[in-house]
Structures are given as structure tokens and as C-alpha cells.
Amino acid sequence: MDLLKGIRPMEDLLLEGRRVLIRVDFGVPLGPDGSITDDSRIVAAVPTIRQAIEQGAKVVLASHLGRPRGRRTVDLSMIGVGERLQELLTKELGKETEVFLPDESVGDGPRKVVMERVEGEVVLIENLRFHPEEEANDNLFAQKLSALADVYVNDALGASHRAHASVSGVARYFAEKGAGPGLMKELTVLSKLTGAPEAPYLVVAGGARFSDKVNYLSQLLGRVRAILAGGGVATTLLAARGLGMGGSKIETDRLEAAQNFLARAKLRGVDVLLPVDVVVASEASDEAATEVVRVEAVPEGALVLDIGPETTAMYASAIGGARTLFWNGPMGMFERRPFMGGTEAVGKAIARSSAMSVVAGSDTVAAVGRLVLRPFFRHVSSGGAAALLILEGRELPGLDALREAS
Description:
Layout: E1 19-23, H1 40-54, E2 58-62, H2 79-93, E3 99-100, H3 108-115, E4 122-124, H4 132-135, H5 139-146, E5 151-154, H6 165-169, E6 177-179, H7 181-194, E7 201-205, H8 214-219, E8 226-229, H9 231-240, H10 255-267, E9 271-273, E10 277-281, E11 290-294, E12 303-307, H11 309-320, E13 324-328, H12 341-352, E14 356-359, H13 362-370, E15 379-380, H14 385-391, H15 397-403
Parallel strand pairs: 1-2, 1-5, 2-4, 3-4, 5-6, 7-8, 7-13, 8-9, 13-14, 14-15
Antiparallel strand pairs: 10-11, 10-12
Helix pairs in contact: 1-2, 9-10, 11-12
């Protein structure tokens, strides 16, 4: 699948003196007090904004934040995001740079703010999801968004799998449209995984649910040498092999699917590596007493919360021989200190490897950030679910919209 086919990069668009609507992904995590706990998505957008400014654009940014469900809420306003973006742009551009924040997303107010701007100035409109029309992909709302600009640029892979007004609906109203450098980089890297990746190609698959991973893992069976399983993916697969997983939550309704997946992998010559030992506890807390046990001897009622040391050594050895590697999903409940060892060991093994390493998924990206390993990966994707859908071979509404009439 040629992900880049028919999509124009932003640098090929005529931006000078024009208003450019850039769909960014500023859906950052917020703490209990409303403060931004991880600004990496804002940081990632800064080079795109800088490039648009250098091309002479008047920049209009649009994003969602959280799930306000079509209602205006003070805690999900873009004000905090705008303030942080202003700090980052001032540092990046080497001069005081104001980010203008209208009170609304569409209408006369935002349009007036945008029209008053000159080349090089930046407007961040209010949270798109304050309007139910955004998620409904309402045509009129998309048309109102389009009235803010002359050119449309999508730079948000993480939103491109959603048929929302700002992602797919608005693009039809622009003759001049394309992908920002952030999105172009994502598609270039993911194209390598969907094309002919250098062998051996390994996938590390963790996270809470096997059902979230089975589709893309099944699609990759013809390409990968091995799949290394952790987290809930591993416990469901182990249960499918008839092993008791104590009191761990197992997707009992997916056991047959798990058995079928293991059978298909064997037929395709793909090694599915499963834990041989695990870390268990009676509760998932920072104070929990832990024990390492063999997977055949998980105590009744115990929770499997991480892979064990023998498994991490086995996985690290396999990772060392990879030339291409995709990681999605932590190995255990890494948010709790007693159960972060497996994720940390696997992350460090990938960081040490010479493979083209790609990591995707919000929990996995958070783990990589927490372990300060981000610089050691070839690519850390912001795509989340969108990246997995691409690996499944699915078309994304946001990408299709860029290809229309191009």
C-alpha cells in the first residue's frame, strides 16, 4: 500500500500571503488540576508551524482536546495549550511570538481574528469538540471551518482515522490541500513497515487486550519473523494454550480467536514468543508484594502484572537480532513501579538494537517517555490507533480526503 500516493507535501503548496488551516493533534493529557502533563504533541507540531511561517503563511491551527461531548467546558479549553505553544514558538523562532485565541471555533469571531492577522502570525481556534457537529462530520460545520482559510493542511495522523469535520469533511472545500511534514514523516516510516521491511522483522505486542491487536497482528503474519507478546495479549494467548492465569482478566470470548491466531502463525512459520515466567501479586499497587513464578504455576487468584526476568532475557536476545522492529503495548502494568521491569528491559533492548525501530500507541509512547528512551528509537509515532489501522491495511478518512481531486 502506497500511503503517500496522491498526497501533496506542505512544501509544495503555495502558502505565501495565504491563510492556512492546519489540523494538528493537541489532544494532550491533563492532570487533575488541568495542567498539561505531557506536551510532546505540541512540541511535535512546532516544526510544521515554523515551516508554514517561513513559507509566508498566516497560520490557523485546529485541534480537539479531551472528550467534552459537544459541550463547552472550562477545563478543556485550548487556553493552556495556546500558552504552552506560545512559549515553544517564542523559543523556536527566537522572538516573542503571540498565539491568538478566539473564544470560538467557527463563526464571525474567529474569522475576524484570523482576517486581522498578517504573515507569520498564529491563531489557535477553540476546542473543536465543543461542537457536536465536529464528530458528526457535519457539512455545514466543515464549511464554516473552511471559511477561515485558503489552504488546508493535515498534520495529525492521530486524528486521521476519524471521519470528523476537521479531518475529512473540511478538505472537500479546498482546492489547495496537503500533508504537513509531521504527517509525511509518519506515512514514510509506516510505508516501510507495510512494504518490504528489512528482515528479520519483529513485532513486540503488549497492552491490556488481545482483541485490540489481533487484526493488525494477523495482517502482519506474512511479513514478520516473530511476535513477542506481553501484557494482556500474552495472558490471553497463554490461556488459549490451556494455562491458568490466576485471577488475571482474560478475554474469555476471544480464546477461540487466540487459538486460531496461534495456529495461523505456526502455518506461516512465525514464532509467537510467550512468557515463560511472570511477575504476580495479589493486587495492582505500588506497595504490592510480588513473586516471580513459572507460567505453568500461577497461583489461584494471583494477578499476572508483568513478564519475568527469564522472559525479558529471551525477548532481549530476539530483539538483538532484528533489523526491523515495531513495538505497540507495554509488557505489564508499567504505571506501577513493581511491574515496570519488563517494559523497561524490553525498551532498553530495542534502544540498544541496530534495528529500524518504530513505537506506536499512547501507553507505549508514554512508557518510552517515562524511561527517557525516546531519542534512541528511529521513530516514535503519534498515530496510536491510526497507525495500527494502517498496518491492518485499512484506508483512513483523513488521508483519503487529501487525495481527492489531487
